[in-house]
């Protein structure tokens, strides 16, 4: 039906509205049919235009956003995985874990453990660098003090001659 459809300026404006709605929507998600009604266009046209412009279906777009948010929450909070699943609009933990594993190849719990291990390694590495820098500074400071002592001895020796 829309194979040879030529995009119009009006279509781009509608898709910009759809994109803004999808970026700011919170669970529960607005069904595509209701979204289309809200925008005054047929559902088929909405799904066709969205896929053509963004290269993803509305479902894929929403799923990608959920998974990106899930990664961020898993990495930056100590919220339980069940709570994160509910925040993202999943009724249970298992569909969330399945979707996460399908997207990233590891479970949410494994992802969190990996992030925590990387974070701990990074902190230790930074501490080592900082202590190494301090020891370098101390070496430099000691050498400077020794040079100053030698300089004073030489100056005193010259003035006494």
Q: What is the element layout, followed by pairings?
A:
Blueprint: H1 9-24, H2 32-39, H3 43-54, H4 58-76, H5 81-87, H6 93-104, H7 108-160
Helix pairs in contact: 1-3, 2-3, 4-7
Q: Class of the domain at 9-108, according to the CATH hierarchy?
A: Mainly Alpha
Mean pLDDT: 86
Please tell me what the overall shape is: elongated
Total of DSSP H or I helical runs spanning 4+ residues: 7
First CA to last CA: what distance?
Answer: 106 Å
Low-confidence stretches: none
Name of the CATH architecture of the domain at 9-108: Orthogonal Bundle
* Relative helix content: over 70%
CATH topology of the domain at 9-108: Arc Repressor Mutant, subunit A
Strand content: under 5%
Order of helices and strands: HHHHHHH
CATH superfamily of the domain at 9-108: Homeodomain-like
Major pleated sheet: none
Structural class: mainly alpha
* Tally of strands: 0
Radius of gyration, CA atoms, in whole angstroms: 30 Å
What does this structure look like?
This protein has 7 helices and no strands. The protein is mainly α and 161 residues long. The longest helix has 53 residues, at 108-160. The radius of gyration is 30 Å and the shape is elongated.
